[in-house]
DNA sequence: CGGTTTGTTTTGTCAAGACTGAACACGATG
DNA sequence: CATCGTGTTCAGTCTTGACAAAACAAACCG
């Protein structure tokens, strides 16, 4: 799982910005790996997360084969995961005239975030259904109904506030950037 | 994965509330399964989720072996998963004097929710670290920094609002209930 | 003590799914 | 048309983790 560095770049003493570059590189590595783990928690393949991390850090669109090279994974994995992210609206495939190759850039990423909202809504809905089924019961106004209420209220509030954060952010910088869904 | 019913309780036709009971039972089944799926999304074993669902619906503490029986899983799985949830502060093991057996009840469940907050905070922190590393760079105020800012702002806002929802709910009914962390 | 009840730990099996290499498709290019 | 460049798909391997059965531990009972 841990990567081995074939080129340790031993000629470091010459350049003044070398140290900064290196630590930046290390930080990038960490960020990318962290994004990999994060997205794995969200049931996405680790490579997809790393892809997102890398593309967040890349000001310009990145070439398909550069992705494979930089992340040290097979082109097959890049193909699969770019497609996945593309379909989710998280990244965007761009092409250039006279260039057969594919480039990718992130897509100011609410795609992922909307997924979270959906999950919360689903939980809320599930508890609501249960509450409904419970209603005709005699003496059903007890602890169980209370718990379900708590549950429902929590998730609905959460989804709402998440939505409003998204909306606020979209209106603030969504007009300057290509702004997807 | 689908359960089969060995004891259909055939003597139900006598009671007038039979229909309601049945649909309630079905709804419970659905709720429990839904909770299983939900928690699986959060990287917990499915059985743990079902356990949470069942305990939410149980007004009184439930006996260890009843859990196994009701969910139709092995006692080993119950043991493992109750322990897991207990350590997470999601459920509570209770005992009764003169009774060797263990009972479980849900622990008005912020345990799970705090996990979500932690995840958000971790994401925010990761982006912040990256931003720091980026700072000394020349011309680093570009798109990348902007994206990281967006990211940071989003997750911190989210975690904050989640916390405040939790706090509001805790203060509203936390004093009547045993109220854990 | 032997045997029972209750819960835990260990061991093995199984399934899901991530990742890869290899075969493939297909347009471009000499 | 043969070949190369580029990306996709397929088939196989490998890891991970959930789950169960069985062995185990410990408290209780006769």
Describe the structure.
2 copies of one chain form a homodimer. Chain A has about 180 residues and is mainly alpha-helical. The first copy, chain A, has 6 helices and 3 strands, in the order ααβααββαα. In chain A, a hairpin with a 2-residue loop joins β2 and β3 (about 100-105). In chain A, α2 (about 45-55) crosses α4 and α5 runs antiparallel to α6 (about 145-175). At the A-B interface, α1, α5 and α6 of A face α1, α5 and α6 of B. Chain A binds a DNA duplex (30 and 30 nucleotides) through α4 and β3.
List the main descriptive attributes of the protein structure presented here.
181 residues, disordered C terminus, 9% strand, DNA-binding, homodimer, disordered N terminus, mainly alpha, three-stranded antiparallel sheet
Average of the residue pLDDT scores of chain A: 82
Structural class of chain A: mainly alpha
Strand residue percentage of chain A: 5-15%
Helical percentage of chain A: 55-70%
Low-confidence sequence ranges of chain A:
1-16, 174-181
Count of domain modules of chain A:
2
Strand order of the largest sheet of chain A: 1-3-2
- Assembly type of the shown chains? homodimer
- Secondary structure tally, helices of chain A: 6
Radius of gyration of chain A: 22 Å
Reported CATH architecture of the largest domain in chain A: Orthogonal Bundle
Biggest interface pair, residues each?
Answer: A-B, 51 and 51 residues
Described by strand count, sense and barrel closure, the largest sheet of chain A is:
3 strands, antiparallel
Task: Determine the N-to-C terminus distance of chain A.
Answer: 35 Å
CATH superfamily caption of the largest domain in chain A: Winged helix-like DNA-binding domain superfamily/Winged helix DNA-binding domain
CATH topology of the largest domain in chain A: Arc Repressor Mutant, subunit A
Under CATH at level 1, the class of the largest domain in chain A stands as: Mainly Alpha
Q: Report the strand count of chain A.
A: 3
